[in-house]
Structure formats: structure tokens, C-alpha cells
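Backbones bend. We report:
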Amino acid sequence: MKTLIVYCSSHGTTEKAVQLLSEWMEGEVLAVDLKRDKITFDVRNFDFVIIGGSIHAGSIQGKIKHFIAKHYNELVTKKLGLFLCCWHDGQTAIEQFDTAFPEELRRLSIANGIFGGEFLVSKMNFIERQIVKKVSDVTVDSSNLDTTAIMTFVMKINSTFAHA
């Protein structure tokens, strides 16, 4: 099975999650950071597509939205996994996830994951630091990345490979 992981990582948290996903996934994995990588790929060449990003100012990255819009008709025919890295948990995280991904993709997705997040203040610019301080009262690097949620997500996906 060939898996494509498409993501955006602003400060490195989503990239950490993708590294774990890539290590734990069965089969061949190509991970592409839409913000950084200039890799050409065809979604049709993959059995499984995982899409993930993080929340900034209440929304997932624009490059993720653009990818979904551009490849929507192909994505609805694929085995999908969707994940979000966000600081919040509970109902707030669920609402952010629901806002980040279209309803039909959420419904079709084999695995949906909310992986927690980080505030990497040391990697933020001045304006980002001020916003984080005001909104979350965080002034130092802080993490609540949930490796158990990542492993659960991978297990759901890997179990589909055994039945393929």
C-alpha cells in the first residue's frame, strides 16, 4: 500500500506528528509539507491519503484548504485519514476539526485524529508571541502532543491494510 501524507507545519509540531505517522505506518509513505516541499506527486498514485495541519488564528492553513479544493473529486474516491494538531482539547478541538475539514471528507475518512499541540514560543515571531500570550497566557515553549492519539490513528489505518 502506498500512503501520501499531505500537511503544513508552521513551527514544527505537525511535522513531529507526521514523523511519527511515517515511522509507524505500514507500506510505502510519502510525506509532503505543502509549505516547504516542492515535490510533484499525483494523488491518483496512492492507495491512502492522509491530510493534516494545525490551527492558527482559528483556522487550518490555507495551503491545506487549497489542496483539498483542488483534489476534492479525487479525495472522495480514496481511503482517507484526517488529523489536526491544536492546543485545545474536548469540544473546542472537535469544533476546530469540523471547521478545518469538509463534512463529506470527515464522513468518508477511515481515521480522524486530534493530536494535541504545542506552543513553540521560541520559534514564533513577535506578533505570534503576543497573540499566544493574550489568548492562552503561554509565554514559554509548551507541549501537549498526544502520541497515544497518533498511535491510535495509525492503528486504524494499518488495520485496513490487513483487509485490503
User: Anything to note?
Assistant: The chain has a mean pLDDT of 86. The first helix runs from residue 13 to 24. The beta strands are 2-7, 28-33, 48-56, 59-60, 79-85, 111-114, 118-119, 142-143.
